[in-house]
Amino acid sequence: MKQAMALTTFEQLKAISDPLRAEMIMKLVETSYTGQQLAVLLETSRPKIHYHLKELEKNGLIEVIRTEEKNGIVQKFYRAAARGFFPSEDLLPYAEELSESTRQLYVQMTNKTKSAILTAPESSFAKAAGSTDPKDWDKVGSIWEISATEADFQEFIQGLFGLMEKLREKSEAAEYDSNGKLYHFSAYGFEIDTPSFDQVEMEEED
User: Fold this and answer.
1) pTM of the model as a whole
2) Which end of the chain has fewer CB atoms at under 10 Å, N or C?
3) What are the distances in angstroms from CA 178 to CA 125, 139, 165, 171, 182?
4) Measuring CA to CA, which residue among 124, 119, 147, 140 is closest to residue 185?
5) 205 neighbors 132 (Cβ within 8 angstroms)
6) Is 24 helix (H, G, I), strand (E, B) or coil?
């Protein structure tokens, strides 16, 4: 599986814009499933799931990674072609479809985070922060609204992904460390029209 895959055709963009297909892709990022398993998981008819699987496979967004024979029937196991998808510059003229496909993927990523929160062990949230200093925290949950130039925002994204890459490198070594733990991260940043919070002046501590 690739880390990221560029969407280069209008057909790929349309294929991923459908809410059900976006949900299917996110499931197939997690692990491999057959059409039958996806139908049960998503509470959708098998014919409908198989139709959408064919569309996603035709556009190179998912692939068959193995087959198994059961009771004389060959079962195909599908997996997403990449962990993440991003549009190429060739798709910029299709603004409406581009917006909808990105929106649907963000919705599905948010649903995945919600599931991770609800199924996390009690210990994940049991410990109180006990301090206003982030260095003392064992978890983080924040929503920010910040005015910034586009250039500053892009610079921040580069810095954020740089930090994640450093942590990833450390985590590879932590696989052999009994103290290593598994953490879920979600990050979203996008332009909005109106603020969600009242604009207030924050008091600085002495």
Assistant:
1) 0.70
2) C
3) 21, 20, 21, 12, 11
4) 140
5) yes
6) helix
